[in-house]
Amino acid sequence: MDAEALAMPRPRPRPRLPREAAPPPVSNARLAMLVVIGAESMLFAGLIGTFLVFRLAAREWPPATLPRLPLAMTAVNTVVLFASLVPLTNALRAVRRDDRTRLVRALALTAALGALFLGVQGAEWVRLVRHGLTLGSGTYGATFYVLIGCHGVHVLVAVTWLAVVALLARRGAFHPAHHAGLEMCAMYWYFVCALWALLFPLVYLY
Amino acid sequence: MTPRRLVFTLALLAAAAGRAWAQSCAMCGSSFGENDPVSRAFSWSILFMMAAPYTVVGLIGVFLFFSYRRAGHPRGAVIDLRRASRLLRRSQPVEDSGGDLA
After folding, report:
1. pLDDT averaged over consecutive 10-residue blocks of chain A (206 residues)?
2. Does the predicted TM-score (pTM) go above 0.90?
3. Considering CB atoms only, which of A19, A24, A57 is closest to B37?
4. Which residues on A lie below 8 Å from B64 (Cβ)?
5. Which residues contact A94 (CB under 8 A, 6 or more apart)?
6. Are B44 and A57 within 8 A, CB to CB?
7. Would you give the DSSP letter of residue B1?
8. Residue A41 lies in a domain
């Protein structure tokens, strides 16, 4: 046998590195957001259940002495809220394309539309209080303010979140492969809008 | 069905159809009249509240089911197209394609 060949160490086979594990179909952040949305849904289910008891048990709804709810203005406001879903969806598309300018613009527009919705709601509330519909105006006033007010608080939280996300996007915090924060915020906004799709006909039309 | 089973089933159905069994509790049964709007309101509210958790959990479950199902599709197609085309052409030796799946 060749002595040189014996002296040469045989090349060791390279250890096979484990392949990178594929990301789960539903990320932990998304799963956590689903749990939050589920819990929030149950909160609103309880409030809607209370509303249904008072609404169905009442012989007269709304009571003759109390003002009617502003249907036309709230319907327009509903369109404003649902219109905010368009720029939000565009924002999600923009972050996947890594288009930061469009992302920031779309997020700012979504937040602005949400703030407009809140502003109009607030103005309507002021008018209603002036006309005598307060939290103490029996079950009609109490259920209206608690149910719609709770949704309003959620919109306020979502608008604040959107504004923060827009600022972060401006600083370049989101990339096509890393935008979980934006996705969570979008999920929450979709939830808030879906909730209004249920609350508006229930409280204002029914 | 044996006669004994038939009698048992009929007796069970008759018992279940009894009016007294349909009342939810003593308070609701005695406090409200037959068509009292308050009892009707409570009934609808209870039905709504009962359906809510099933709906919420069901929707989340459907979302998770379809998310996992959609993610499973690429894993289902395990034909290595690059390797297969090389095999067909037989122009060069077959190499590992690095696990690229079709």
Report:
1. 59 60 82 94 94 89 87 95 96 93 95 96 94 88 94 96 95 90 95 95 91
2. no
3. A57
4. 26, 34
5. A100, A102, A103, A106
6. no
7. -
8. no
